[in-house]
Amino acid sequence: MEYAPNPSDFPFLAKGGEMGKLILQNDWSKTSLGPIESWEISLRSTLGVILSSPFPMFLFWGEELLCFYNDAYRPSLGNNGKHPAIGKKGKEVWADIWDFIGPLIEQVMNSAEPVSFQDQLVAFYRNGRTEDIYWTFCYSAAYDDSGRVNGVVVTCTETTDTVLTKRKLEESERRLRSMIHQAPVSIAIFQGPQFITEIANNRSLQLWGRTAEEVLHRPIFEAMPELLSQEIQGILDQVYQTGEIFSASEFPVELRRQGKLETTYVNFSFEPLFNSSGEIDRTMAVGIDVTDQVVARQKISESEALFRAMADNIPNLAWMANADGWIYWYNKKWYEYTGKTPEEMEGWGWQSVHDPEVLDTVLARWKHSLEQGEIFEMTFPIKGKDGNFRQFLTRVMPVYDEKGAISQWFGSNTDIQEQKDFRDELERQVNERTAELLLLNDSLKKSEERFHHIVAEVQDYAIFYLNRDGIVENWNAGAEKIKYYKAHEIVGRSFSSFYTAEDQVRGLPQQLLATAASQGRSTQEGWRVKKDGSLFWASVVITAVHNNQGEVIGFSKVTHDLSDKKEAADALEAKKTELEEKNAELQRMNKELQSFAYISSHDLQEPLRKIQTFASRILEKEQANLSDKGRELFARMQRSAEQMQALINDLLAYSRTNTAEHVYQKVSLASILERIKQDLREELDEKQGEIVLKDFVEVNVIHFQFQQMFYNLISNSIKFSRPDTPLRITISAERIPGTAVPVKHLPQDRHYWHIQLSDNGIGFEQEYKDRIFELFQRLHGKSEYKGTGIGLSIVKKIAENHGGSIGASGQLGQGATFDIYLPVERV
């Protein structure tokens, strides 16, 4: 008859819940305890307390340490784990962690002293897997009716979530502090109304001229007493008391550095920090030292007064005109060269020194610039006082007033007669060499076509698998075709059978396997033996095959019959020597072109450098003798010279994209953008600009060119941003196959980085998507947007230098998008 105890007979189980029912249903007669009716009073009392407790509790009882636990403990056992364990032996239930809890139980039963742990890691099996679980628990003695320790009561609480949460909070705080210390700006956090310095990053310490030991954990006004006599304390008190953010630009602060007070200009803000109760308990200070910018601007203002005197002594011909083109001033160099008087040159009198054959063209171009507000640039002859004409590069820049309207023009004429003569001669030589290179290129193309044809004919591969000892385990049809062996004739034999007797003696097969095992792969070309004893020239690639533990378990071997290719290669060897000679000639010519570009750019910049030198000297010595109008004219002339130098620098940058050494390296797109953000910080702040990088990738590029590309693109977005709209620049990057690149001339047999830069600026009409990349091409007048018209041309050249491409799309008033495609690997 089945065992069925009456629940009413055992009141200690009345409030035992689910675990009480399991105890009642268990057949205890089959255990060392015997039927429930025979249990000791002490056991019943202990179980009554455990089962009715709302806290997780567990009991080990008797010599076999039989297991009992309450409903509150049940969830800790999880699902698909140890439950139900009631009535089972403790060592069997907890076998996976018995080496930890067994000695604890034994210690308590022997000493009757409790043992406790706080947040102890005890991993055991539950929920179908072994989990890392943290516990706070206490092991205490349980006594039988005779007063002897006969069990252990475990009171426990699982603290896994608490421990993990605490770790996350600690990690979050560590990351926050790390971010503050690595920030590119000064950041400090002050605690309480005494403004005790809790955190100060390196930029803060550099700005303050203090060490961490001098300021940390001290009130900031105690560590830096020079601030007490300034406005800083009152501002901090107001922020702490009102909770209102305070910010200022170019704020002068007296700081004691190296024993003396220095005036420092700072862009900074004080912001309140709130605790979990919504109360202010800290104040954060963020600042940027702009002393250099303020001092530089002050120096620029001082130098502008000297410009007019400097321009009168520059070696170039120079002049200034009203907005309508009426020339009212020439420098001394003009009169010295032309031999004319001021009365003869006034207004439009300059026409008398121009070549009549080109005068109409010059007038038309000059009137066009006046009407459109565009830079005038042209090369034409000017007659000297000796009656002879020399070629001059003439450039006229508009000068704008405060409202952005053209108020004057500044022109300069640079004598380039010698450069023109040299360029004409060089152009003649280049034309001759070009004709020779075209013939060479045609010959090279035909040779490449013959080579690719030979390669296309080599289609058969022997592919088979070797075990670790080099024994053939399978054999494909290609192997049979190349080596003549049937599968049953070679499977089970060593692959060394295919090598010549000489290669076998020197151990070449074993060397190839050893290299593949240690390095992952080995390659070799040489003679191999077919079944009939004939030889063929083969390319062999042996690749190690690894198991999940990284152990070599075999090798894959691919053999390619290159007999035909070897014959073709021998035939091409002679042709290769000829091509190398032609290539050396081409490199020599390229060096000549690079030298010419450098010499020309140097000669163009040298007069500008002299302008700046003479201007500085005159303004230093003659400032008191200049009128306000004179100083203003010098300032405008100086800006025009700077614009001309910007054009020359852009031309140099464009030239260097062809001539610079192409050294590729892996760089982070994020680090490139971070550097550009720092360089353009003021411009971005002025436009309330934000640069968002969606994808963090590393690209294999020419570092300085790649940085120049994004500098030009971001500068372009800033320049053409909408006046009343915060600028947003979004950059994304993804790796795509060549077949997905919408550029026809790029090879499709490789992968590319597709990097996209989009902005919300003024945009452009789609019909101009190609024109914007051409040299000196602009969609807007110089009076609207400054620039040389070369920046995007440089971007295009850099993309092409990398074997890639760039395209643009836009919508007027909505923004522009630039799509860049660069090969993932160096081409």
TrEMBL record:
Histidine kinase domain spans which residues? 599-826
- Residue ranges constituting the PAC domain according to the UniProt record: 247-302, 376-428, 522-574
Coiled-coil annotated residue ranges, if any:
416-443, 562-596
Name the reaction it catalyses.
ATP + protein L-histidine = ADP + protein N-phospho-L-histidine
What general EC class does the enzyme of this chain belong to? transferase
Q: What Pfam families does this protein map onto?
A: HATPase_c (PF02518), HisKA (PF00512), PAS_4 (PF08448), PAS_9 (PF13426)
Domain (PAS) spans 303-373, 447-504
Alphabetical list of NCBIfam families matching this protein: sensory_box
Stated name of the protein: histidine kinase
Q: Which organism is it from?
A: Algoriphagus oliviformis
